[in-house]
Structure formats: C-alpha cells, structure tokens
Inverse folding.
C-alpha cells in the first residue's frame, strides 16, 4: 500500500443549508498555488503534510461536481491519518503580482553570488592587520600586517569581517586592493567606518545569505522569499558574477538598516531600501543618524552600485548599454521558467527610459542625469524646440 501520494481524491462537504451554491463557490475559488494544510484536533497530523506543500492542479470529477482530484508539489503521507478525523485546507498564498517576482529575483541574484563567488566553500580566515585613523577622522581601510599571497587565501567583496574596531554590526568587504603586481593582497576597504586606530586579528567569512531570506508569513507560515537558481554560460557568466556581486553588496548594506515599526516583512523592507537607495539610513557610514562624521565615500560607492543594477549592468561606467528589455530572455533557470531578462531588476526604470524615452525622472536614484543644481538662481529660462 502506498501511503505517500502527490495526487488524491477530495470532496467538498455540504457546508450550509444553501448546499450546492456554497459548495460551487468553494470549488470556483480553488486554484493552483494554494497552500495545502490539514485541519484536525490531533496536532500530530500537521507533520503529515510537508512544509511548503502547494496545490499544482485540481480536476473536478465529471460524474460528481463536488468531488475531484487534487495534485500537489510534494508527497503527503496519509498513513498517520484516519478516516473522518481531518480535513484538507487550501489557503491562498500571500503574494503580490509585482512585489513577489521582483523580490524573488533580487534574492536569487544574491544567492547566485553566494554560490558562485571564488571564496564559496572556503573556511574562515584570520589575518593580522590595522586600521589607521587620522586625528578627529575616520577610516574604512584595513591594511594587512604583511602582504598575503593571493594563492594562500581568497578575498572577495561581500565577505563578512569581524575584529578590533568593528562594533558588532554587519561589516563586509567593499573592495579588495592588491599590490601593483597583482600577486598579493595589500588591504581591503570595509563597509563601515571606524573612528579610532586599531591593530589586531581580523576574521574573514565567505559571503553569507542576506537577512530576511528565511522570513515566513505569519498568516500561512510559508516563505516570503522563494529564490530560484540562475544559470549562465559563455560571456554572460562573467557578466553575471559581476552583476550578482553588485546586487549582493547593495542588499547586504540595506539589510543593516533598522526595521521600521510597520508589519512589512523584513525582505520587503530590504528591497524597498535597495530600490529607493536609502543610503542615508545605513548605520556606521557617516550618514544621517550616525555618530560618525558625514562622508560620501561609502555611501557614494553603494549609490553607484544601485544605479548600475537598476540600469541592468554591473557598473554603468564600463558597460555602455543600459536598460535591458525585460521581455527579452537573458539568463536561465534549470526548470526553464526564466522567460524574461533576469538583468532587469525594476521594469519601471526601463519603461520610463525606453518606452517613454525620458532622460530623467523623479522616482529613482537613476534621475541624477536630470538633477541640475542652480543654487541661489534668480531667473529661469526655458527653451522649447520643435
């Protein structure tokens, strides 16, 4: 007898005196993607249905309109269940047709960098170094006590760093500096400033998952984020790694912004801050609400990365072709469901620049090309040509 099934018979019970009408309403509401769970006074039955079980198809029985066959994405073990003691519930998944796909895409790029950066799988490394801070100043440059051969360890952007002067907040490598010969590591720039000179041992850990990726809905218990696996080949693979690095560093920085007091899940707040380029709220980089003196060094670097990925490129200074069409597939997934351009992280940016043909607009950090300063001006002249 097979107890674990991915397809099973169901029956909609007569739930009210109105009978058939209400049962038909229930049937009309059943659709693929719904979360499948069991309702029972026996708490042990909850383990019979695996986490994140979803309805993939529901077929009504031709001979009985109130009976049908439900297909799910993973096997359900009915051996612990007993007739008449439970009912199967179908709950609509909490999704948004715009926010959910974009959220999944951003976290998928972060996942790609975690799994494909050269330091992936490398054990943590400890190296001596120092951060020299000028009088009444700040610094984010960590210089190694001696040059480290490149083959000895691998250092990449996005690695987490802990050590003297770093107060426990998330600190990552922004950039890696090699000697002129390129054979040894000289220093790294950090994602935070320190205000006092320090020396000691610093620990480096390969890039870790972005905060919020494991957040679950408080209504269904299902993941808010469902990242997928990206695949690339040829020249696209080189571009993809550079692009994923920029996306990862943006999300890593934005994940340090304190959560607001709304009910918005953390991953959506990270996405909001990333697309909105809210660098002014990132702690320990010398921006608003920080005890560190203001400085645009780190904030400017993060801002340029945001502008780059919203333009669909790893670096807008070196990649001249911006704003990829979201409808033209580029990149892929093992399951073949990437029928769009995965390098387009915000189709609205493409729509404004390519469809509306506007050079600048006020809804994105990308509007800097149209942000003309005219402080203390007393007159405005406008020329209109046809």
């Amino acid at each position: 007898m097979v107890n674990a099934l991915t397809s099973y018979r169901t029956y909609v019970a007569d739930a009210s005196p109105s009978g058939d009408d209400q049962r038909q309403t229930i049937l009309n509401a059943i659709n693929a993607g719904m979360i499948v769970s069991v309702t029972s006074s026996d708490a042990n039955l909850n383990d019979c249905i695996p986490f994140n079980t979803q309805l993939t198809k529901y077929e009504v029985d031709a001979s009985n309109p109130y009976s049908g066959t439900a297909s799910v994405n993973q096997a359900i073990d009915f051996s612990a269940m007993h007739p008449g003691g439970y009912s199967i519930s179908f709950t609509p998944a909490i999704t948004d047709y715009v926010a959910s796909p974009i959220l999944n895409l951003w976290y998928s790029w972060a996942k790609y960098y975690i799994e494909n950066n050269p330091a992936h799988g490398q054990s943590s490394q400890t190296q001596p170094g120092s951060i020299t801070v000028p009088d009444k100043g700040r610094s984010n440059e960590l210089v190694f006590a001696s040059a480290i051969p490149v083959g000895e360890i691998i250092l990449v952007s996005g690695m987490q760093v802990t050590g003297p002067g770093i107060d426990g907040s998330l600190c990552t490598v922004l950039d890696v500096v090699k000697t002129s010969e390129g054979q040894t590591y000289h220093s790294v720039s950090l994602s935070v400033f320190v205000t006092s000179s320090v020396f000691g041992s610093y620990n480096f850990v390969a890039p870790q998952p972005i905060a919020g990726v494991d957040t679950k809905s408080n209504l269904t218990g299902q993941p808010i984020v469902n990242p997928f696996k990206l695949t690339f080949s040829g020249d696209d693979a080189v571009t993809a790694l550079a692009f994923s690095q920029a996306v990862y560093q943006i999300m890593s920085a934005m994940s340090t912004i304190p959560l607001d007091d709304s009910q918005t899940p953390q991953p959506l707040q990270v996405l909001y801050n990333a697309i909105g380029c809210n660098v002014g709220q990132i702690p320990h980089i010398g921006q608003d609400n920080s005890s560190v003196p203001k400085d645009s060094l780190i904030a400017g670097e993060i801002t340029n990365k945001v502008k780059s990925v919203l333009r669909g490129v790893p670096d807008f200074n070196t990649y001249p072709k911006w704003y990829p069409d979201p409808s033209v597939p580029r990149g892929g997934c093992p399951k073949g469901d990437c029928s769009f351009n995965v390098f387009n992280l915000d189709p609205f940016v493409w729509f404004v620049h390519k469809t509306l043909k506007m050079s600048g607009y006020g809804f994105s950090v990308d509007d800097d090309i149209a942000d003309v300063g005219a402080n203390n001006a007393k007159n405005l002249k406008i020329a209109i040509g046809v």
Observations:
- Residues 1-5, 11-19 have pLDDT under 50 and may be disordered.
- The longest strand covers residues 64-77.
- Residues 95 and 199 are 48 Å apart (CA to CA).
- The chain is about 20% helix and 20% strand.
